[in-house]
Amino acid sequence: MIELLQIGSFPPEVQDQLDAEFVCRSLEDLAREPAMAERIRGIVTRSNQQVPADVVERLPKLEVIATNGVGYDLIPLELAARRGIAVANTPDVLNAAVAELCVGSLLALLRRLPHADRFVREGRWAGAAFPLATSLAGKRVGVVGMGRIGTEIARRLEPFGVLLAYHGRTDRGLAWRYEPDLLALARDSDILVVVAPGGRETARMIDARVLAALGPQGILVNVARGSLVDESALIEALQSGQIGGAALDVFDEEPRIDERFFGFENVLLTPHIGSATRETRAAMARLMMDNLRSWFRSGKVLTPVPLPGV
Ligand code: 8YV
Questions:
Q1: Contacts of range 171-176, beta carbons closer than 8 Å, 24 or more positions apart
Q2: Which of 123, 124, 126, 245 fits a 20 to 30 Å CA distance from 197?
Q3: Beta carbon of 71 within 6 Å of any ligand 1 atom
Q4: Which of 194, 272, 277, 279 is the best mutation target for the ligand 1 pocket, counting ligand atoms within 8 Å of the beta carbon and taking the most?
Q5: Phi first, then psi: what are they for 124, rounded to 5°?
Q6: 146 Cβ inside 6 Å of ligand 1
């Protein structure tokens, strides 16, 4: 059976599929028996796992890297391109789930749903009315990264009666207003949704200036990667009231995030669950397996990641 290097753990039902068709070796196995490097033809991983370049360099027979996720910011793409190694992700099958979490988190933050739930459970309703919260209708929403997931988010937000605009590398000729200047988008938005891919190009693009432009009533939503936001600038902006609140599903250091976030009443924290539904994860696993099967059968993956210079 074909030997794969597995980086990261998978749920049992996915691991069973992998083990039924491949021999999965861990980094520890590789360290214990370096000679196996000669036999490894593929890497299977998850989008929140680093694929170390030095490991790829030690695998002379490596042909393909298949990740369970749409993100590929932790995969050494330049090296893969140089070595002619195919890289495959799982796009599209998770768009709806991530968009649902984005809209759900935004509504939970604006209507303070976790607080309202606690208010009722703690029996405080008998003694007082829950304070008024904030409507989504009529708000100006700026989407940073109008790709597949950004588009699904915008489509789901539109029926809420919001005004949509977006920023990204290119004007995609969509019905929503394109804003080439990120600062201008932040200035003209009540809610800024971050949904661009991680990586060098987008690192810390949401910095102190962008947060200041968003302003004291402004809300930041991040369902992309922690790396897109300057986290210390964000914490400062929350501490000083320079922005109005945030709904965060991704962070710099996951899962041990900066504990200063725990003290903010105007912040909704979720543990990187954008794609975490049974249906979506099953679809992601299916596509990951199909990418591996297709590669070893035909030398082509179904959903290739565009490699630099290729
Ligand atoms: C992860 C994600 O894959 O797809 C992505 O890029 O971030 C998530 O769907 C998941 O959290 C880890 O496997």
A1: 172/146, 174/146, 176/143, 176/146
A2: 245
A3: yes
A4: 272
A5: -85, -10
A6: no
Write down the pTM of the prediction: 0.97
- 95 CB under 6 A from ligand 1? no
The stretches of the chain forming alpha helices (DSSP H) are: 12-21, 27-32, 53-57, 77-83, 95-110, 113-121, 148-157, 182-187, 208-214, 231-240, 278-298
Of the candidates 204, 210, 248, 252, which has an alpha carbon nearest to the alpha carbon of residue 228? 204
Instruction: Say whether pLDDT at 310 is over 90.
Output: no
Q: Verify whether residue 115 is a known catalytic residue.
A: no
Longest distance between any two alpha carbons in the chain, whole Å? 70
| pLDDT, tens digit (0-9, with 9 covering 90-100), for 173-220 | 999 999 999 999 999 999 999 999 999 999 999 999 999 999 999 999
Structure tokens belonging to residue 11: 């749920």
Catalytic residue from among 25, 46, 272, 281: 272
- Nearest-CA residue for ligand 1 atom 4 is 69
pLDDT at residue 62 is higher than 90: yes
